[in-house]
Predict the 3D structure of the following.
Amino acid sequence: LMLTQDGQLFFDRVAPLLRDLGASEEAIRSDIAPSGRLRISMPNEMAPLLLPRLFGSFAADYPNLHIEVGLTDRFVDLIREDYDVALRVGNSAPGDYMVRHLADLPMTIVGSPAFLKTWGNPATAEALAALPFARYALGGITQPMRLPDGRSFIPSGRVDCDSGTALIQAALSGLGAAYLLRCLVAKDLEGGRLVALATGFSFPSAPFSALHAFGGTVPLRVKLVCDFIAREAKAIAVI
């Protein structure tokens, strides 16, 4: 079975209202412990940093919650795919979603020691643009590199990846420089497996946000998990 065009329009308009209605009783009865299903989407690369904290602390504090986690770097449709909240790095997904800013995560450019020995450490924007990169590509579209002065360029390179995890492996293998969240490569930098490049540049931090489609009536379980992730994200940001 498939919805007609009119049926889909009706669903898109009514589904958020039903979600608000379902959250209303929970909002009024503030004395009850959160329960039921909590379905979360988050990027693959953030899972090693967030899941131990989510499962080890948050889940223990709220034993009546059934937690479902989906790992993907694509923008999920919160309503059609029935997610309570999506955690995203960078610009928010298109759509009429409520966005809560959680933290700003510093970015860095890294490469392997062998890569540094071959290509050197770029000190100018022109030298940086000349480096081969392991490129971040979504839907076959290479994402531009934005410089602190507002300029941008499409990096060159022979490896395209759609996740931070793959970019890290490409950088470790010496296949190119990689532009990544610093928290994702902190251990590799500390252990000398990767080195920071272009340290003279101050790259803008990436916003880390939580998105939901509940409008103004946010279920307690969603508010609690967003509060928890916000606290953890601030700790991750200084790694």
